[in-house]
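seq:
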Amino acid sequence: MVDHARAYALAHLSDPHLSSLDGARWSDLLNKRVLGYLSWRRRRRFVHRRDVLDRVVADLLATEPDLVLITGDLTHVGLPSECETAARWLDGFARPLCLVPGNHDRYVADDPATTTDLFWPHRRGADESWPPVTRIPGLAIVALDSAGPSPP
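struct:
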């Protein structure tokens, strides 16, 4: 029986853009990514600050939410190195985690095995269905992902 009076604490993070493009090779940017890189270089690197994100996440996790939802844009331009950084960052979430990549994570048509597929092992409480369903007692979150590479 489901306890309909149960209250859930859900924490939602969107668009953390947690990686840095410092050190990105120009050969990796010779496509649509160069536009994202220039945007990051000009202004987004001053707005999407990892130190601020780390403080927000620490405060969020101290509240002990029942489920953390991270939706979209863990990266700036979806470089494999950025996705590796994001996957390591996801290690810090030791509670049920629902994850949906964003358009920046799929900036171009790269091999998912070197990009967004690195995120999937970090989903906690999710089944292997499509679309993935993250379950905690009495609640199911369906993670619909419409992100895909698009022209500039």
